[in-house]
Amino acid sequence: FDLKNDDFTNLQELGQGNGGSVMKVQHVPTGTIMAKKIVLIDAKPAERKKILLELQIMHDCDSPYIISSYGAYLAEPNICICMEFMDKGSFDGIYKRIGAIDIKVVGKVAVAVLEGLRYLYDVHRIIHRDIKPSNILCNSAGDIKLCDFGVSGELINSIANTFVGTSIYMSPERIQGATYSVKSDIWSLGITLLELSVGQFPFSDSFSDSDDSDLEREPNTPSNHRDSLQVPMSATSKRRARRRSKGVSLHGGGMTMSIIELMHQIVNEPSPRLPSGKFGQDPEDFVNACLQKDPDARSTPAQLFEMAWILYSRQNGVDMRAWADTF
Ligand code: ADP
Ligand code: MG
């Protein structure tokens, strides 16, 4: 494909993230429907060239667990990345539409993410760096694929947003400044699996009934979850935050306090867990293995592949195509 802006018709906005927005588009000369990610960058010509070169790795990916890429091009001051369109969207959108995801389907997600991570690392020596429900996509064939992996360090450097690289799915060691390893992705996978099976981000007021009973509770409704980071804050900081804004946003606006408090909690409090007894021992063991706070104690992808829940989930009888047809 020789991609250029004039050849696309915009069909629908699919969503916005930290670094840009994603559009469903049609590539008119070929009739192909694609997802086009538009990222506003602040980069010199030499850096732009390097970004495009690095993005080429995406194009070289060939795995059923990785979104395929049609290519990337510059459209000043943006960079556009054209990828396979996944018609059922991302798993954050899915659980917000249909509620908590059946644990057997979550098992399929775990298998797909582990396979995707293994492919990226074994074949291309890259670490994903941004595992979260919105970067795990589904289509009506029932395929589960990863997108938005860290192929381009230069692109990450050039995105004009302070919060790039900051994520509420970040592992304790990353928050404390350690270098990235594949174990950090495993932490993010654990948080993601908890969120999908419970239907709620784990570090939120109503997730567990443990020791936060002194806090005021606010419903963590599906619609406001995406952009408002609701974390158990002290009553004072909550009031302060509410005075400043109706939500607590990751995207700036003086709400950094809550992010710092969340990070503090991730580092200092015991890891969240699946509610005990509800989903069975195997998923609980798996999530606990992902959410070991000490990266040395956390399982490697190879160890996780051998765990009972993964062995079972590979052949658990769920028809993913039929499942994807229910919404
Ligand atoms: P984030 O991942 O932080 O939500 P992005 O800008 O990466 O932000 O993506 C915005 C939204 O676009 C995602 O939440 C996802 O639902 C949607 N999206 C991204 N890529 C695709 C794709 N290839 N096919 C369908 N939807 C997509
Ligand atoms: Mg994304």
Question: Your description of this structure?
Answer:
It comes from Mycena maculata. Residues 209-249 are annotated as: Disordered. GO terms for molecular function: ATP binding; protein serine/threonine kinase activity; protein serine/threonine/tyrosine kinase activity. With 327 residues, the chain is of the alpha+beta class. The chain is built from 13 helices and seven strands. It has helices at residues 45-60, 91-98, 103-124, 153-158, 172-175, 182-198, 222-225, 235-244, 256-268, 281-290, 301-305, 308-314, 320-324, and strands spanning 8-16, 20-27, 32-40, 69-75, 78-84, 136-138, 144-146. The strands form two sheets. It has a five-stranded antiparallel β-sheet, with helices on one face. Strands 6-7 form a two-stranded antiparallel ribbon. A hairpin with a 5-residue loop joins strand 6 (136-138) and strand 7 (144-146). Helix 3 runs antiparallel to helix 6. The protein is globular and about 55 Å long. 38% of the residues are buried. Mean pLDDT is 86; it is low at 209-256. Adenosine-5'-diphosphate is lined by residues 14-18, 20, 22, 35, 67, 83-86, 89-90, 93, 134-135, 137, 147-148.
Taking the alpha carbons of the first and last residues, their distance comes to 32 Å
Tell me which ligands are bound. Answer: adenosine-5'-diphosphate, magnesium ion
**Elements, N to C (H/E):** EEEHEEHHEEHHHHHHHHHH
Task: Provide the β-strand percentage band.
Answer: 5-15%
- Tell the overall outline: globular
> What is the spatial order of strands in the main beta sheet?
1-2-3-5-4
Number of strands: 7
Uncertain runs are 209-256
* Continuous helix count: 13
Overall residue-averaged pLDDT value:
86
Q: How does the helix and strand content classify structurally?
A: alpha+beta
Please bin the fraction of helical residues. Answer: 25-40%
Please outline the major beta sheet. 5 strands, antiparallel
Q: How large is the radius of gyration?
A: 20 Å
